[in-house]
Specification:
Layout: H1 2-5, H2 9-25, H3 31-43, H4 51-81, H5 90-93, H6 98-119, E1 124-125, E2 128-129, H7 136-140, H8 145-152
Antiparallel strand pairs: 1-2
Helix pairs in contact: 3-4
Membrane topology: Multi-pass membrane protein
Keywords: Membrane, Transmembrane, Transmembrane helix
Family: Belongs to the FNT transporter (TC 1.A.16) family.
Length: 154
């Protein structure tokens, strides 16, 4: 998200590399990175490493990653989506077709995009908001992207 928020290439690179570097330097565990590390340690016959220790570490890291992802998702929901109510997926689960549920999600993205246009001072020139491409095309690849994907599956 930090990389998508920047408009310059250097800002995008900084927004990707810096958090990952900090994550690694602080010694946090990530299940996918650990799979690579443990496989490499097994292939290289590193002393002091056993498959059992790797499995225990991988199970703990995976559980931590799942809980951390849920906490992050709940935080984003609380900050951006709580005013929408608790029925985010109600239309899909209670019988309306999938296309209508997708329209609802695209509508929420458009509302969020309009909010960014109207409240971002960088876009305010001459007292009105200028048209930009804030998040909607980045997140969904354009208005028809979810529907093209859905129609291609049939």
């Amino acid at each position: 998200i930090m990389a998508l928020a920047s408009r310059s290439e250097i800002g995008k690179i900084w927004g990707i590399v810096f958090p990952i570097t900090c994550f690694s330097a602080l010694g946090f565990q990530h299940c996918i990175a650990n799979m690579y590390t443990f496989s490499l340690a097994t292939i290289m016959n590193c002393p002091g490493f056993s498959v059992g220790d790797g499995f225990i570490n991988l199970a703990a890291a995976t559980l931590g990653n799942i809980l951390g992802a849920q906490l992050l998702a709940m935080t984003y929901w609380y900050v951006y989506m709580r005013h929408e109510g608790h029925d985010l997926y109600r239309n899909h689960h209670y019988g309306q077709n999938h296309r209508q549920a997708q329209w609802d999600h695209v509508g929420r993205a458009k509302k969020f995009d309009e909010f960014l246009h109207n409240h971002d001072p960088r876009h305010m020139i001459g007292g009105h908001a200028h048209q930009t491409t804030a998040t909607y095309p980045i997140l969904f690849g354009g208005a028809d992207a979810p529907y093209m994907w859905w129609d291609a599956r049939r």
